Amino acid sequence: MTIGRILAKRAALSLLTLGLLSAMVFAGGQLLPGDVARAILGPLADAGAVANLDRQLGLDRPALLQYWDWIAHFATGDLGRSYSYRAPVAPFIVSALEHSVKLGAVAFALVVPLGIAGGVWSALHAGRLIDRLIGLIGLSATILPEFVTGIVLIMIFGIWLKILPIAANWPPGAGLTTQLHYLLLPSLPLVLVLFGYLAKMARAGTIEALAADYTRTAVLKGLKPHTVLWRHVLRNALLPTITVTATQLGYLMGGLVVVETLFRYPGIGSLIYAAARDRDFPMLEAGVLIVGVIYTLAGLLADTLHALLNPRIRLGETE
Amino acid sequence: MRTRWHLLLRSGTFGTGAAIVAFWIGCAVCGRYIVPFDPFEDDILNALAAPSRAHWFGTDQLGRDVLSRVIVGARDILLVAPLATALGVALGVVLGLVTGYFRGLIDDVVGRVIDALLALPLVIIALLALTAIGTSTWTVIVVIGIVFTPLVARTVRAAVLSERNLDYVAAARLRNEHAVYILFAEILPNVVPPVVVEASVRLGYAIFTVATLSFIGFGIQPPSPDWGLAVSESYGLLDGGIWWPVLFNTLAVASLVIGVNLAADGIQSVVDA
Predict the structure, then answer these.
(1) In this predicted complex, what is the ipTM?
(2) Cα dihedral across residues B127, B132, B135, B140: positive or negative
C-alpha cells in the first residue's frame, strides 16, 4: 500500500471513531435527568413556558433528528449555547483552548527532551544504577495521580521554597517570561506523568538499535562512537518514540482536568470540570467532543509522522 | 501453577507491594477499632491544630483528628476500586471470549466502539457519564467498570485468538459441545494468566481514577474520610501554611497506588516468566 492510501484509510477510521464518539456524548446528554427548558427557566417557571421553550429549542423532536442537528451545527462551528452563561459555547471553548495549548506546550517542551535524553541515557547504561533509577522515577511518576504529584510540587516549590507561584493566573498584560514563570509549576505534574512513557519507549528503541546489525557494521567499519550514536542508533531508535509522543498529546487532555482545577487555570480541563459541576451539558458536550477531536487528530498525526519518517512505509514497501 | 505461586511469593516487588496493600486493607477493616480519636467527631475549638503529641497528624478544619481519618479513609476507595475492577473484568472476560471466539461482525462492531471509547481519557468519560446519571458510590463503580470492560475484553480477545485454533478446542467442537461450554469450561481456564495480570493492572488504574474523581468531587462523597476528598477539601489551606491535612492524605494515596502497582508488576513478571 502506498502512503497516501494508508493515511486515507486511517483518516476514514478516525472519522468513524469520531462519529461513534459524538453519538455516545449525545446519548449521555439524553440520559441527563430532568428537562432542559426546566433547567434554563428554573423551578418556578410554569409548565406552559417550559413546553414552549422545549419547542423553541427543538427538544420535542425525535432524538435522531436532534443528534443530526447538533452534529451539523458542530461541524460549522456552532457549538451550542451554555445553560450557565446563557451565551454561545464557542468563545468559551476557544479561550480555554488557548490557555490549555500554552500549558500543554510548556509541558511538551520540557518533557520531550527530558524523556528522550533520560531514555537514551538509560539505554546506554542499561542495567546500571542510573538506568534503574531513571526507570523507577519514570514508573512512579507515571502511576501517581496528577493531583498527588501536583500537591507535592506545590508544597515543595510554592510553599516551602517559595520560588514558584501556586496558582497559574498571571496578572493581566503579563509578558511571555512572566507567563512561563506561572506555567512552570502546573506543567510539572504533566511532565512527570508523560516522562515515564517517553523514557521507556526511548530506552527500548535505543537498546534495540544498539543490538542491531547495522550498528555493529558501523562500529566495525571504524566510525566514531559519536557518529554511530547520532546517525545510526538514534535515527532508528527514536522513530517509535516520536509516534508515542504524538499519542501522549491525547493523554495530556485527561491530566489537564485535574491540573487546571488544582492550579485554578482557565483551560479546557477546568472548563469541562466546571461544566460537569454545574451540569451545563451543552458546554460539557462541546468540551468533551473537542477533546475527542484533538485526541483523534493526535493519533492521526502520530501515524502520519510514523509513515513519513519510516522509509519502509514512505517508499511504499510493505512492512 | 505451584511454581508460579512460589515465584510470586519470592518476588521482592510483589512482596513489598502486597505488604503495603495489606497494611491499608487492615486499616480499612479494623481501622475503627485502632484509631486514637473518633474520625467523625468535630471539635471546632481545636480546628486546624498543628501536629502535636495528642494529634500526631494534626486536626482538620472541623477539628477532626487527621491520623484517625487517614486510617479509616482507606475503606471507601478499597471498596469502590476493587468492585469496579471486578465488574470490568467480569464483563470484559465475557465480551473478550465472545468476540475472540466468534470473530465476524460482533468483533468488528465492538472493536470500533472500543476505539471510540478510547478516544477519550478515562477521567473525562467518567465526568461525562457521572454528570449524566448522577454521582454516587454505585454509579462510580458502574461507570469505571463499564469503561474497563472493553479494555479487558481487548486483552482477553487477543489471548482467545491464539487459543481458538488449538486442538483441544477442535476436539471439544467435534464432541459437539455447546459454544458456552467451550468458551467457559475449555478456553477460559487457559486464558486465566493474562486475565490476572490485566485485573491487577486495572486495579491500579481504578485506584488512580477513584482518587482523582474524589479529588474533583465526582467520586466518594462527604462525610467520608476518603483521602482524595480530604485533599480536595483542604488543599486551599496550603496558602495559609496549613499543610498537615493535605500532606498526610496525599501520601496515603501515593502509597496505596505504588503498592498496587508494585504488586501488579510482580504478578506480571511472574506470569511472563
Answers:
(1) 0.86
(2) negative
